[in-house]
C-alpha cells in the first residue's frame, strides 16, 4: 500500500469525487482488510464506503480534513456497523444452535514476515488499528485521533505500546 495525499490547490479547483475515489481506493480497501482480516468482507465494505461517500460528497468540507481522512472515517464507521451487525448475527445463531466456525483469512497480513504476522495477531484490535492508520497508511497523529475519536496523546501512547510489543516479539524470535 502507498500513501496518497490529495490537496486542494485552490478554492475554485476542488477535487472531483471520481478523482478522490480513484486516488484513495487502495488505502480504503487496505484499511478495511486490515480491520476485518477478510478479503470478501473488505471488498463489500469498500463498496459500501464509497457508496456512502458518494451520497455525502456535497457535504465534504476540505477545511475539516483531507478527502483521504474523510473517506477513512466513513470506512471506519462502515466497518464498526458491520462488526456490530456481525456480532448480533452470531449471537442469534448461538441462541438457535447454528454456530458456524469462522475461518479468518490470512490476507490481511500478506507480504509480512511470519514473525511480524504473529506479532500483529497478538496486538489488540485498537493497537492494530493505530498501527494501520499511523504506520501503514501514514496518517498524522491529529487525523488518526479525529478518526478514532481519541486524543492525539492516546494515539501516540497506543502506537508506542503496539510498536514496543512488536519489537519485543521480534527480539524474542531472533533469540529463539
Describe the model.
The protein is mainly alpha-helical and 176 residues long. The protein folds into two domains: 1-108, Rna Polymerase Sigma Factor, Chain: A; 111-176, Winged helix-like DNA-binding domain superfamily/Winged helix DNA-binding domain (Arc Repressor Mutant, subunit A, Orthogonal Bundle). It is built from seven helices and no strands. Helix 2 (39-56) packs across helix 3 (67-95). The longest helix is centred in the middle third of the chain and has 29 residues, at 67-95. The protein is globular. Residues 98-107 have low confidence and may be disordered.
| Helical amount | 55-70%
State the domain count.
Answer: 2
Which structural class matches the secondary elements? mainly alpha
How many helices? The count is: 7
- Going by CATH, the homologous superfamily of the largest domain would be RNA polymerase sigma factor, region 2, helix turn helix motif
Largest sheet, strands/sense/barrel = none
How far is the N terminus from the C terminus? 31 Å
State Rg.
Answer: 18 Å
Which series of helices and strands comes N to C?
A: HHHHHHH
Give the overall form: globular
Amino acid at each position: 500500500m502507498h500513501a496518497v495525499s490529495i490537496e486542494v490547490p485552490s478554492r475554485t479547483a476542488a477535487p472531483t469525487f471520481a478523482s478522490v475515489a480513484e486516488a484513495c481506493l487502495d488505502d480504503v480497501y487496505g484499511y478495511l482488510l486490515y480491520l476485518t482480516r477478510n478479503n470478501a468482507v473488505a471488498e463489500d465494505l469498500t463498496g459500501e464506503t464509497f457508496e456512502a461517500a458518494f451520497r455525502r460528497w456535497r457535504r465534504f468540507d476540505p477545511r475539516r480534513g483531507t478527502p483521504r481522512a474523510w473517506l477513512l472515517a466513513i470506512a471506519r464507521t462502515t466497518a464498526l456497523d458491520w462488526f456490530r451487525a456481525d456480532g448480533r448475527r452470531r449471537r442469534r445463531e448461538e441462541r438457535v444452535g447454528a454456530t458456524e466456525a469462522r475461518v479468518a483469512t490470512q490476507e490481511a497480513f500478506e507480504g509480512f514476515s511470519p514473525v511480524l504476522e504473529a506479532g500483529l495477531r497478538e496486538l489488540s484490535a485498537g493497537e492494530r488499528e493505530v498501527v494501520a492508520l499511523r504506520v501503514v497508511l501514514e496518517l498524522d497523529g491529529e487525523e488518526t485521533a479525529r478518526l478514532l475519536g481519541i486524543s492525539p496523546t492516546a494515539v501516540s501512547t497506543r502506537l508506542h505500546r503496539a510498536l514496543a510489543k512488536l519489537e519485543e516479539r521480534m527480539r524474542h524470535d531472533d533469540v529463539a
